[in-house]
Amino acid sequence: MAERPDDVDVLRPARISGQAWQNSFNVAVAASAHAAYACVGTWLTDFRADLSKIDVPVLLVHGDADRILPCAATAARLPGLIKDLTFVTVEGGPHNIAWTHPEVVNPALLDFLAK
Predict the structure, then answer these.
(1) Is 65 within 8 Å of 36 (Cβ atoms)?
(2) 5 pLDDT tier (thresholds 50, 70, 90)
(3) I need a surface site. Which of 39, 66, 75, 92 has the fewest CB within 10 A?
(4) Is the pTM value of this prediction over 0.70?
(5) Phi then psi for 67, rounded to 5 degrees?
(6) Using one digit for the tens of pLDDT, what is the confidence trace for 28-64?
(7) Cβ atoms of residues 86 and 60 within 8 Å
(8) Contact 87/77 with Cβ under 8 angstroms?
(9) Which helix (H) or strand (E) covers residue 97, if one does?
C-alpha cells in the first residue's frame, strides 16, 4: 500500500477503525467547498509574533509521527514562544491523536484541566 499522509496505512485497523476513517471522510466531504478553498490562503500566515501575547495556560499535545504537520516543523517550535505551555509528545502519534491515542491524550487533558 502506498504511504498516505493520514496514517491509515500504518494504524489501520489497530488504532483507526474503518468506521472512524469513514466518519472522517464524511465530515471532510460535507464541508463547504468555498470554505475549504478559501482557507488555503491562510496557511502561510505567520502568527509567531502573536504567541507571546497569550496570557493563559496552554496545553499542546502532538504526535511525533504526524506526517501532515510534522512535530519538528510545528509543535516542537512552540516551547519558548508561549509563556505558560505544557507540551506533551505522543510517541508514535499521528495527526489525529485524539482518535488513535486516547490513552495518552485524555489523561494529559484531565491533568492539565486539574491544575
Answers:
(1) no
(2) low
(3) 39
(4) yes
(5) -95, -5
(6) 899 999 998 999 988 889 999 999 999 999 999 999 9
(7) yes
(8) no
(9) helix 97-100
Answer whether residue 2 shows pLDDT above 70.
no
* Amino acid identity, position 77: R
pLDDT band at residue 1 using 50, 70 and 90 as cut-offs: very low
Contact 90, 62 (CB under 8 A): yes
Q: Strand ranges (DSSP E) for 1-115?
A: 58-63, 85-90
Query: Left if phi > 0, otherwise alpha if psi is -120 to 50, otherwise beta: which for 8?
Result: alpha
Name the amino acid, one letter, at 80: G
List 90's β-bridge partners, or say none.
63
